[in-house]
C-alpha cells in the first residue's frame, strides 16, 4: 500500500467548542491506484489532505506511507518524505511569489539536493504547456497558468502519490478539462497513485474508486 489510514480522527478546538471534522477515516491507496474523494464544502476534504501530506497532525489514528507510520517520523523526516515522495497540488496553489515559474518548479528538486536534475523542470513545464512562461512571476500569471505551474511543481520529483485538492476548481470548463486530462495522463505515464479531492461528480468518475466524505467518515461508492 502507498497510503494507509486507520481510524484517523481530526478535531479543531475553537474556544470552548471542539469541532470533530474527521471521526474515524479508513482508507487504503494501492500502487498506481486513482481515487476520488467527494464531499460537500466544509466536509473536511482539505483537512484530510493536509494530514495525508503530513503538514498537519491527526488527533488520533494512524497514517502510513509505504508502511512507515508518520507518527514515527520527526518533522524533518516528514518534510523529507513529502519532498521526495508526495506531490501536492493545494486548493490555493501556494506558489512562492518571489520565485518565477521555472524557480517554483525547480524548488522541490533543490530541497532534495537534486538541482542537477533540472532537465525535469523543462520536461514538466513543457508537459503542462508553460515553457513560454518560465520567467513570469506568479502575479504575472493567470489562475489557470498558476495551476499548471503548481502541477508541474508537484510532479517534478516523481512522487509515488499525487494529492490534488480541486485542481480544476478555479478554471473554466475547457481549461479545467485540459488540466485534468494532463494530470490523468501524467499519473498513468509515471505510474503514480492519485488522491483527487473534488465536489465534481463527473470528474470523480474518471478515478478507479470514488469515496464520499460525509459526517467525518469515508465510504466507498459501489
Ligand atoms: N485550522 C482550523 N481551525 C478550526 N477549524 C478549522 C480549521 N481548518 C478547517 N476547519 C474547519 O473544518 C471544516 C472542514 O474544513 P475543510 O477545509 O477541510 O473543508 P473542505 O471539505 O475542504 O471544504 P471546501 O470544499 O470548501 O474546500 C470546516 O468546517 C472548517 O471551518
Ligand atoms: Mg477544501
UniProtKB/TrEMBL annotation:
InterPro entries: AAA+_ATPase, ABC_transporter-like_ATP-bd, ABC_transporter-like_CS, MacB-like_ATP-bd, P-loop_NTPase
Domain of life, source organism: Bacteria
Keyword set, alphabetical order: ATP-binding, Nucleotide-binding, Transport
Gene3D superfamilies: P-loop containing nucleotide triphosphate hydrolases (3.40.50.300)
Keyword ATP-binding among UniProt keywords: yes
Presence of keyword Plastid: no
Sequence ranges assigned to domain ABC transporter in this UniProt record: 3-222
Matching CDD domains: ABC_MJ0796_LolCDE_FtsE
GO molecular-function terms, A-Z: ATP binding
Residues spanning the signal sequence: none
Family: Belongs to the ABC transporter superfamily.
Record-given protein name: ABC transporter ATP-binding protein
Organism encoding this protein: Halobacteriovorax vibrionivorans
Amino acid at each position: 500500500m502507498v497510503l494507509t489510514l486507520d481510524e484517523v480522527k481530526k478535531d479543531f478546538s475553537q474556544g470552548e467548542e471542539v469541532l470533530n471534522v474527521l471521526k474515524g477515516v479508513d482508507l487504503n491507496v494501492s500502487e498506481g491506484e486513482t481515487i476520488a474523494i467527494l464531499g460537500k464544502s466544509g466536509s473536511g476534504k482539505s483537512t484530510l489532505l493536509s494530514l495525508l501530506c503530513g503538514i498537519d497532525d491527526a488527533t488520533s489514528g494512524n497514517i502510513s506511507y509505504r508502511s512507515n507510520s508518520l507518527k514515527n517520523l520527526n518533522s524533518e523526516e516528514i518534510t523529507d518524505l513529502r519532498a521526495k515522495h508526495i506531490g501536492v497540488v493545494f486548493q490555493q496553489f501556494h506558489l512562492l511569489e518571489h520565485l518565477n515559474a521555472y524557480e517554483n518548479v525547480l524548488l522541490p528538486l533543490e530541497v532534495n539536493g537534486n538541482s542537477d536534475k533540472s532537465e525535469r523542470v523543462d520536461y514538466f513545464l513543457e508537459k503542462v504547456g508553460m515553457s513560454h512562461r518560465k520567467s513570469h512571476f506568479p502575479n504575472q500569471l493567470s489562475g489557470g497558468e498558476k495551476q499548471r505551474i503548481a502541477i508541474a511543481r508537484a510532479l517534478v520529483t516523481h512522487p509515488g502519490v499525487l494529492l490534488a485538492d480541486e485542481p480544476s476548481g478555479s478554471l473554466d470548463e475547457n481549461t479545467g478539462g485540459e488540466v485534468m486530462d494532463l494530470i490523468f495522463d501524467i499519473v498513468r505515464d509515471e505510474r503514480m497513485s492519485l488522491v483527487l479531492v473534488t465536489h465534481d461528480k463527473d470528474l470523480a468518475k474518471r478515478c478507479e474508486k470514488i469515496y464520499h466524505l460525509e459526517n467525518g467518515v469515508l465510504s466507498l461508492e459501489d
